[in-house]
Write a structure and sequence with these properties.
Radius of gyration: 21 Å
Structural class: mainly alpha
Distance between the termini: 43 Å
Number of strands: 0
Order of helices and strands: HHHH
Helix content: over 70%
Number of helices: 4
Shape: flat
Strand content: under 5%
């Protein structure tokens, strides 16, 4: 590897660094899941930390611009589609659950209560962020 006067790596193509970042992130997630599944949570969290540190360190170690305006536009589209999809699912699901809770077919338990509270928190944060960035 070669280093410029700034001490950052300038070998390889930007796509290689992006792939390496994705690999580190996948490794982190899989390690966390496997560590939990085999009842070794500290091993899973340790390997997760190593993978995530690699994901964060890679862009700091290269002089290449790894993410540009095109990546930002793709991210905005994916984020908008995700929020819209879960918003519509929530808009249909929760009123149905409220109606079902008045019957003997459904009752609010810890899991469904947590899911509904999480949905409220996510959309509250989204609304606050939307307001902040609209008037910034």
């Amino acid at each position: 590897m070669t280093e410029s006067q700034t001490g950052r790596i300038q070998t390889g193509a930007p796509e290689t660094y992006k792939r390496l970042m994705i690999a580190c992130g996948l490794f982190a997630g899989i390690a966390l899941g496997v560590g939990s599944a085999i009842q070794r949570p500290f091993v899973g969290v340790g390997l997760y930390t190593v993978g995530m540190l690699g994901t964060v360190a890679i862009p700091a170690m290269t002089e290449y611009t790894l993410f540009d305006e095109r990546d930002d536009a793709i991210h905005r589209q994916a984020s908008g589609a995700t929020i819209a999809l879960f918003g519509w699912i929530s808009a249909l699901l929760f009123p149905s659950l409220v109606v079902l809770s008045s019957t003997s077919y459904f009752s609010w338990g810890p899991a469904s209560g947590t899911l509904s509270l999480t949905t409220v928190v996510v959309y509250t944060v989204y609304g606050l962020a939307l307001g902040y960035y609209s008037y910034r």
